[in-house]
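Question: I have long wanted to understand how a fold can be written as tokens. Here is the record:
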Amino acid sequence: MAGKAILEDTVDPKDLKQFEAMFVSEARKGFVTEKTKFTYALCLVRSKLDGDIRKGVRFLEELFTEGSADARRDYLYYMAVGFAKLKDYDKAIHLIDGVLSHEPANHQALNLKSEIQKRRQQDGFIGMAIVGGIGAVAVAGLVSLGIALTRK
């Protein structure tokens, strides 16, 4: 899946409920398998809700430190997806760079990094435009006030 597609992909609420139920059922029994926790974390990261995404990232961070070493690349990748969806682009790029440091030719990671960088730049331009617009309104207001005061 291309970088843009993975960042825009959302989970079906029914799937989220299904995997949440599996996670809760295992937790009640006292042991959640790595596979169940990972699958639930992926669903959470694909949610439209920031709180769900944060929870999914937290689970992925736990899996990264406690889970299988063979799956760490996947955990890093999906943490990067989560942070990008939360617009924490610097952290997302840092994590995807972790994947690329071990697999420099990983096309999936390269595509995701490119999309994250593009979104960071777009959001930066939007932020500058908003600040610039506010500044222009403030200057116009001061000029109007100055003109009004000189007319008195």
User: Anything to note?
Assistant: The mean pLDDT is 88.
